[in-house]
Amino acid sequence: MNPPFVASAERFAAEHGRSLAFRLLGLLTRCQGPDLELVVKKTYCASIPENTYATPENPWKTRLGILLLPLAWLSGKSVLWRPLPPVDVCLEVPDSDYFEAHLEELFCLLSGSKRVAPMTGGPGPGVEWTAPAQSSVRLRDCLLLLLAAPVLLPALWALQRASGVPLLQAFRQALSIYAVYRGFFGRYPCRRFITIHDDSNHPCRHLAFRQSGGEELVVIQNGERIAHPHFSFGSMDRYFVFGKAHEQLLRSLGVRASAFVHCGALFLDARFRGLDSERVKFEPRLYDVLFVDQGVYPFEGFNERSGRSIEKVLANLAAFKGRHPERRVAYQLRAYTGTATHRLQKEAVLSVLGKLFGKSISILDNDGKGASYRNVLRSELVMTFESSLGFEALRLGVKALFVNYSGDPAETVCEDERFQLMDDAADFGRFEAKVLGLLAFKLDAAPQAALERNAAMDGRFAQRVSAAINAG
Fold first, then answer.
1. Average pLDDT, the chain
2. Number of neighbours of residue 190 by Cβ within 10 angstroms
3. CB 158 within 8 Å of CB 20
4. CA-to-CA distance for 213 and 445, rounded, in angstroms?
5. Does the pLDDT at position 187 exceed 50?
6. Cβ–Cβ < 8 Å for 195, 218
7. Do 261 and 472 meet the contact criterion of CB atoms below 8 Å apart?
8. pLDDT tens for each residue of 384-393
9. CB 262 within 8 A of CB 303
């Protein structure tokens, strides 16, 4: 069943898709027909209140940002570049450390000439690297928007008044995504572009790729996806998703792909090689309850309502430990690297945990080399808000509980009610009963919900995905 905002987006596109603002957007992004309609729907979904992932910004930047956008490109991005010779494959990664830790094996198995494109940071060793993926624009695109902006902005204000939807920020973001990827694909042409940057999958990225001569845009899922406007109306050629459940979800969100390929989860599959042979070491269980870190507000990327709801879960977990001191409860930190931003995030998490838990609950560090998965196998019950590690725990045969106190139904991720608790009131009695019930429950096999979330778990993710990509 499609979420309500999908139907609303379709109605909006039918009513306002031919407005002057969107016709100008079509001219600036060189698209029309179904392509422009998809961009209209994406822009709508990025603008509505239900899109709780929207980044707050200065109101004046929102109102006037389109006028200043071409100047920001000219001053902050590279416009004086020459195109490099085309390659067969370009792989977009978060940074060089991430590439070496998680994607180098996949990259080596891909056929043809290749480059790696970091989203941030500089090049790593051993392979050909591009400049950061969003660091280039075409001078022509800057000048076109500079000329069009004085007409585009009033047209967009008029559309906002007519529709009642605050479109300015999302409209500007669509233009920016198109321009930076047009710049990137012009500077670093490739036949096939592969990315794990799949949170938005903005159709303007796909437009820029195709218009620059690209043949296939391949997206690899890199995190849990929910029935949320942020993940709607994406576009690519092939989408490598964890499993059947994600394909069904993404189709219901209007995501457009020529093919969905069920490939399992990168991290779970990578850890499987070590975990499967070591399972025997993790008996008996060391922890009754293991809470999986998703950060604390405002550092975890959620809106305030969802971010504060995680603190309510943690408060109930602390109360549970107080009522049941014999239970072994631990908090599993995510892998915070040595960057200043990550240090700040970790300090914020530890500060909140110190206030809520004192010394009653164990805080488990993370070396980024599988600590989370090893501790999952040492636990009787894994608890989370909506982390994909909850489903991965179930796939490994460990019970999991997803707790949603946010009041947002989109954050309810598990269809199997045995492993989901949704309670806007954050009632401790319900929480306690659910936890005790699951601790007493015996899980004989991975539930269907977990199997449909992760199609494969055999330690051969890189081989499986590269073979499918190479075969075309």
1. 92
2. 28
3. yes
4. 48
5. yes
6. yes
7. no
8. 998 888 998 9
9. no
pLDDT-derived band of residue 235, with 50, 70 and 90 as boundaries?
very high
Residue 209 and residue 192: Cα distance in Å, rounded?
Answer: 9
What kind and span of H or E run contains 449? helix 448-453
Q: Which of helix, strand or coil describes residue 403?
A: strand
DSSP secondary structure string for all residues of 276-300: HHHGGGG-S-SEEEEEEP---TTSS
Task: Provide the β-strand partners of residue 362.
Answer: 330
- Name every residue whose Cβ is closer than 8 Å to that of residue 65 and which is 6 or more positions away in sequence: 168, 169, 172
Q: Which two tokens stand for residue 200?
A: 């938005």
Residues in the chain: 472
Cα separation, 216 vs 210, in Å, equals 8
Instruction: Note whether 384 and 394 are within 8 A (CB).
Output: no
pLDDT in tens, 284-335: 689 999 999 988 887 766 778 888 899 999 999 999 999 999 999 999 988 8
Token pair listed for 126: 């051993």
How does pLDDT run across 95-106, given as a tens digit for each residue? 998 999 899 999
- C-alpha span between 39 and 21 (Å, rounded): 12
CA distance 156 to 159: 5
Scan for tokens 């969100």, then name that residue.
253
Task: Supply the angle between the helices 20-28 and 33-47 in degrees, to the nearest 10.
Answer: 120
Reading the block at residue 166, the tokens are 């605050």
Structure-token pair, residue 152: 């585009």
- Residue 280 has a pLDDT of 46
Pick from 215, 243, 69, 37: nearest CA to 141: 69
Look up residue 89 and give its amino acid.
V
Paired tokens of 183 = 């710049």
Residue 276, pLDDT score? 55
Going by C-alpha positions, the residue among 271, 268, 279, 222 that lies closest to residue 369 is 271
**Band of pLDDT at residue 279, cut at 50, 70 and 90:** low
**Exposed / middle / buried, residue 30 (Cβ in 10 Å: 0-12, 13-18, 19+):** middle
Phi, psi for residue 20 in degrees, rounded to 5: -60, -40
Q: What is the dihedral of CA 60, 62, 64, 67, to 10 degrees?
A: 140
Largest CA distance in the chain: 69
Confidence of residue 134 (pLDDT cuts 50, 70, 90): very high
Q: Which amino acid is located at 300 in the chain?
A: E
Examine the pLDDT at 338 and tell me if it is beyond 70. Answer: no
What is the reported pTM? 0.87
What are 240's strand-pairing partners? Answer: 220, 261
Q: How many CA atoms lie within 13 A of 368 on its CB side?
A: 10
Q: How far apart are CA 371 and CA 364, in angstroms?
A: 9
